[in-house]
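ping. complex inputs:
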Amino acid sequence: MNITCNDWRHEFALKLAPENILLQEQNVSILTIQADAWQSASKTAITFNCRFAAIWAKEVNQNFQLNIPLELNGKYLLLRTEIPIAKPEIASWANIYPAANRPERHTHDMFGVIFLDHPDCKRWTRHQAWSETEYPLRKNFSPNNPAIEKETPPDVDYPFFKLDGSGVCEVPVGPVHAGIIEPGHFRFQIAGEDVLNLEERFGYVHKGIEKLSENMEIKSLIRLAGRVSGDSTVAYAWATCQACENAINIEPPKRALFIRAIMSERERVANHLGDIGAICNDVGFAFAYYQFSRLKELWLRLNAEIFQHRFMMDCITFGGVKQDLTTNDIGKMHQEIADFKQELIELFAIIENSESLQDRLKTTGILTQEIAEKIGAVGYVGRASNCDYDLRRDAPYLPYDELSIKVPIFQEGDVAARLKVRAKEIMVSLELINELLNTLPATELQFNYTGSFKNCEGIGLIEAWRGELLVYVSFDENGKIDRYYPRDPSWLNWPALEQLIHGNIVPDFPVCNKSINCSYSGHDL
Amino acid sequence: MLKLLKKICEVGIITEQFNLNDTTDIEFIGKSCRKLINKYFASSLAIRMVDAGSCNGCELEIQALNNPFYDIERFGIHFVASPRHADMLLVTGPVAKHMEAALKATYAAMPKSNLVVAVGNCGVNGGEFGVSYASLGAVSNIIPVDFTIEGCPPTPAKLLTGIMQAIGNRNV
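pong. complex structure:
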């Protein structure tokens, strides 16, 4: 036994106390256990009050390796076990951790792992593009199978939850939505205007990202990462680079890390600005929509001017960043932030004091702290329901370890609270960008690595604008990508929508949905 | 309320008169398209947008067409919720296999005299995702495409130009 942690993970390992324990320290400790201890591990995890962060599988020789990262007090422990491909059965965690429900079903659809006693083992990511007996992420599955000529039928017989009773109607919405947004399906059972039940059905924009990444060179992977979810392109590129950098134990130069953080905060501000306007617009307050979309446009234009791309796509490279900031760039950002602060104080006051708007936002779509904790909600969705967690402060990665981060928290858990968290986060980010610009270290921009990537693995963990983004990367014996699994924060936040809609009316669904604004593309992979 | 009105007055009208440095002048195209839209589309061109598998990058930029800087509605172009009301189908890709049926159904629900525009590198040629067990690549692999707008994602200015060129192309 090789234990190197002096926190809860040490106790956790002792409590589980199976043979063959191995703990290694990177940013995440790894605990390998026997497959038959998988279920008792879930019970131990819940008694420790750990948060379930993800589950993914990986083919290793004749086995499937299963991985579950747990988080407590900002420390991560990766539980790992192996099961034979010939008999791919393992205990489900979904009865104890609802957050495991969909990720386990995804793992089943992609690998054929059978989760015993799963409470709802319907297909999730799979629709009709491949058959029930094919598993795309197995190594013997050809990525080009089946041929393009074969038409894919719609997934019409998905077994939705049914509800009967006089006056109960069913409303199917999607996959193609009314607005300019991503596709997904929502199935409502309603009585009059009241929503009795909502069931989500996703997977429509499944593009085979995990399969596509197999055998890729690191450069192509980072390009692909920037396109998993376009609104979070900086976050994905950073987390993926961080995972690769951790795999071979290198650290990019400080100046590069600062520029990454500046871009990441700029991405956060852009998305928050757009969504605040859109939330207000969903309840008919067009003024805010026009004002905030104006500010977002100005913000994106400066991105384009400085980084040559409005969303800063492909600006982060393995070991560094693509380009430096000039004194002129820094001046422009400072000036913009000064202007924005003034305007935002003015605009937030108008939002706060508009009674007809607040009347629509307050008490709408309440996510209680109890449910938020149970489903493991992250990011602003969690923070509006008193789940006080932000990686930048609680599990700081470079360069946030040197900064003090204010984390806005609200208790109400309604749409108004989620809007307020984001408004406050914008102000925090503006301060952070100023601070990062003022203290920009004078170092290189790129760590030049000439070694190999053979047989190594790493995890990237950053606070994306939606919340915790976790990325796992492993390399094979040729230094090519063996497995890439990015877990978007939306995996944890989508179930919140099904819960917070209870007791609300159908016309408030758009504003409730916008207030959590999860990713479809990042979730469907 | 007064503060709100004050802000509206202070900001004023910020919609831009386009004079892009490249070869296409949106203001000019816009005006000539306005004539075509008046003539062929009863003064208004309705667009139905379908995300058939995009990463959401293109959607953000298409949404931006409605912001006060671009204000696409001034040219008589607006986005609608139903394909039955639409003259143009704007599709982003790559077309995920799981979206194939929905895209075809949307296309079939449109009036016959329609325009289909594929948006973004993925919609135009499959982009990063190409053709695989899950992706059908370019939009033109599924439905007939009249015009393409490249970019990853295309900027709002590029989208606006492309949409107008698509209209112009059709009736010239």
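Residues 331 and 437 of chain A are 9 Å apart (CA to CA).
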